[in-house]
């Protein structure tokens, strides 16, 4: 079976049977393909008699969301498995357990997290996750610090950079986040009622300069091993637990891209409250919760990152007075700029988010889309002037007139 081909459900069961940690006994297994993402097959394999289960994720040689006309390297499955393994060592308890990987078949066999909910879905349903800021700040601080020149051997880092060269998936990001939304590009997917807002962005030279600076950073700044696609669809949550999945976009890039991804997706949900909150007072409360989550996440992230640096920093030159403060200031600005770019692309680029797209009423949806565009462009425009996370939160509050 080892030559690459997309697995049938029966073949997925055969592979699952070999995972004795999960299925030590021989009762019947049932398989269901549940992949609803843009790129891969995902099989849920369960053993009804014992209640045990696992997940098999298999990469397809093309982008599922577009079709075979958009070929994609299967090497992303190797990258995903290796990133997952590194992240689980650096941030224990915050990733799914990996049982088996097979780079020929481009698959990862891992823990079933069905007792969690995908955070995007949870937020749409009004879920509250009191441990999320603590957990995600821990994940980001540890995975970013210990894979950077601040926290690991700098010669070994160059070898790891090579291991995570990920051109096909980086090109998706370069095209869909840092290019197409700023032109009348055929890959954009624009609802008629917001076409005027997209056209205004295409004419905005100042905005395009900021996007060019962010694009340059994404292309050239090999700062740390990123997750690379850290949106709320890549995070499973319960009120007690957080698990980060799907690092197939992992590569060495600017740290702010990961932190900004988390903030952008909380802000998209913030904009979507135009529909999901039933009345004005719950809308205000829900939005305050989302902004507080961003504030707490940044503050905890900064505190943890600085503490790791003070305790484990490996470079004596980087102990120069003022360098750490300068680094954190630049990281905050990058985070805000990337959060803006990641917000804009989800409104009329190729791939949208359910928070906004599943709003059934076109008028409420349009209000949410315009709000998200105002926040996204505001963050991009002001990223280089920002001095604290409060500057970003103010942009979100002002967009709703507060
Ligand atoms: C063609 S893939 C579209 C998007 O899905 C992934 O989750 C990434 O965010 C990518 O940009
Ligand atoms: Mg994904």
UniProtKB/TrEMBL annotation:
<comment type="similarity">
    <text>Belongs to the methylthioribose kinase family.</text>
</comment>
<keyword id="KW-0486">Methionine biosynthesis</keyword>
<keyword id="KW-0028">Amino-acid biosynthesis</keyword>
<comment type="pathway">
    <text>Amino-acid biosynthesis; L-methionine biosynthesis via salvage pathway; S-methyl-5-thio-alpha-D-ribose 1-phosphate from S-methyl-5'-thioadenosine (hydrolase route): step 2/2.</text>
</comment>
<dbReference type="GO" id="GO:0005524">
    <property type="term" value="F:ATP binding"/>
</dbReference>
<dbReference type="InterPro" id="IPR002575">
    <property type="entry name" value="Aminoglycoside_PTrfase"/>
</dbReference>
<comment type="function">
    <text>Catalyzes the phosphorylation of methylthioribose into methylthioribose-1-phosphate.</text>
</comment>
<dbReference type="GO" id="GO:0046522">
    <property type="term" value="F:S-methyl-5-thioribose kinase activity"/>
</dbReference>
<feature type="binding site">
    <location>
        <position position="345"/>
    </location>
    <ligand>
        <name>substrate</name>
    </ligand>
</feature>
<feature type="binding site">
    <location>
        <begin position="111"/>
        <end position="113"/>
    </location>
    <ligand>
        <name>ATP</name>
    </ligand>
</feature>
<dbReference type="GO" id="GO:0019509">
    <property type="term" value="P:L-methionine salvage from methylthioadenosine"/>
</dbReference>
<comment type="subunit">
    <text>Homodimer.</text>
</comment>
<feature type="binding site">
    <location>
        <position position="229"/>
    </location>
    <ligand>
        <name>substrate</name>
    </ligand>
</feature>
<keyword id="KW-0418">Kinase</keyword>
<feature type="domain" description="Aminoglycoside phosphotransferase">
    <location>
        <begin position="32"/>
        <end position="264"/>
    </location>
</feature>
<keyword id="KW-0808">Transferase</keyword>
<feature type="binding site">
    <location>
        <begin position="246"/>
        <end position="248"/>
    </location>
    <ligand>
        <name>ATP</name>
    </ligand>
</feature>
<dbReference type="InterPro" id="IPR009212">
    <property type="entry name" value="Methylthioribose_kinase"/>
</dbReference>
<dbReference type="Pfam" id="PF01636">
    <property type="entry name" value="APH"/>
</dbReference>
<protein>
    <recommendedName>
        <fullName>Methylthioribose kinase</fullName>
        <ecNumber>2.7.1.100</ecNumber>
    </recommendedName>
</protein>
<dbReference type="InterPro" id="IPR011009">
    <property type="entry name" value="Kinase-like_dom_sf"/>
</dbReference>
<keyword id="KW-0547">Nucleotide-binding</keyword>
<keyword id="KW-0067">ATP-binding</keyword>
<feature type="binding site">
    <location>
        <position position="40"/>
    </location>
    <ligand>
        <name>ATP</name>
    </ligand>
</feature>
<feature type="binding site">
    <location>
        <position position="57"/>
    </location>
    <ligand>
        <name>ATP</name>
    </ligand>
</feature>
């Amino acid at each position: 079976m080892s030559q690459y081909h997309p697995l049938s459900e029966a073949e997925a069961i055969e592979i699952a049977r070999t995972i004795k940690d999960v299925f030590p006994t021989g009762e019947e297994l049932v398989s269901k393909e549940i992949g609803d993402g843009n790129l891969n097959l995902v099989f849920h394999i369960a053993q009804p008699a014992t209640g045990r289960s696992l997940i098999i994720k298999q990469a397809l040689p093309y982008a599922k969301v577009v079709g075979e006309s958009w070929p994609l390297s299967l090497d992303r499955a190797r990258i995903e498995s290796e990133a997952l393994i590194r992240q689980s060592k650096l941030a224990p308890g915050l990733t799914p357990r990996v049982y088996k990987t097979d780079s020929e078949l481009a698959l990862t066999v891992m823990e079933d997290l069905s007792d969690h909910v995908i955070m995007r879905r949870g937020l749409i349903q009004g879920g509250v996750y009191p441990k999320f800021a603590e957990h995600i700040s821990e994940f980001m601080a540890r995975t970013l610090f210990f894979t950077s020149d601040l926290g690991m051997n700098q010669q070994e880092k160059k070898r790891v950079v090579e291991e995570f060269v990920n051109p096909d998936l980086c090109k998706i990001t370069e095209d869909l986040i840092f290019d197409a939304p700023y032109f009348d590009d055929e890959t954009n997917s624009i609802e008629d009622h917001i076409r005027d807002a997209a056209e205004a962005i295409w004419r905005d030279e100042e905005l395009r300069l900021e996007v060019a600076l962010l694009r340059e950073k994404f292309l050239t700044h090999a700062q740390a091993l990123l997750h690379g696609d850290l949106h709320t669809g890549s995070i499973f949550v319960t009120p007690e637990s957080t698990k980060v999945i799907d690092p197939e976009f992992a590569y060495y890039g600017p740290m702010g891209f990961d932190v900004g991804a988390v903030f952008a997706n909380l802000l998209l949900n913030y904009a979507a409250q135009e529909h999901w909150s039933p009345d004005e007072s719950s809308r205000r409360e829900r939005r305050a919760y989302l902004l507080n989550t961003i504030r707490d996440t940044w503050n905890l992230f900064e505190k943890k990152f600085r503490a790791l640096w003070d305790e484990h920093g490996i470079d004596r030159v980087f102990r120069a007075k003022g360098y750490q403060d300068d680094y954190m200031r630049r990281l905050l600005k990058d985070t805000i700029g990337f959060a803006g770019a990641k917000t804009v692309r989800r409104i009329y680029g190729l791939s949208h988010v359910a928070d906004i797209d599943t709003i059934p009423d076109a008028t409420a949806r349009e209000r949410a889309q315009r709000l998200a565009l105002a926040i996204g462009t505001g963050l991009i425009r002001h990223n280089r002037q920002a001095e604290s996370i409060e500057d970003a939160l103010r942009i979100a509050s002002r967009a709703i007139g507060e």
